[in-house]
Every structure is written in C-alpha cells, then in structure tokens.
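User:
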Amino acid sequence: MRAKADLPEKPCQHCGRPMVWRKAWARSWNDVLYCSDRCRTQAAQARRTDHGAAPIRDHA
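Assistant: Predicted structure:
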C-alpha cells in the first residue's frame, strides 16, 4: 500500500489546485487536465469567449 504523500500529483490547468492521483484515473492519468467538472466547464467557456471574438479591424 502506498502512502498518500507518495502518489503522483499535478496542477489543474484551470485553477492551479494540486490534483492527487486517483484509482479512477489510473488508465487516463495523462489525459486528466481539470480537478472538477466546474473547472472543465469554466475552461471551455473561457476558450469559447476567447476564440469566438471577432477580429478587430482598422478602417484607416
């Protein structure tokens, strides 16, 4: 049995909180980016607003 302090850890891409490895993530640990559904949803909303903005055009 491993101690919790020995488990792998990485930061959430949205909020930066540390995420500790979970057994449920065993097969997809490299693909896990967010600590929660809330962070995943907020990150997606931020991507949509950043990429959905119309380009600024200079009419000079």
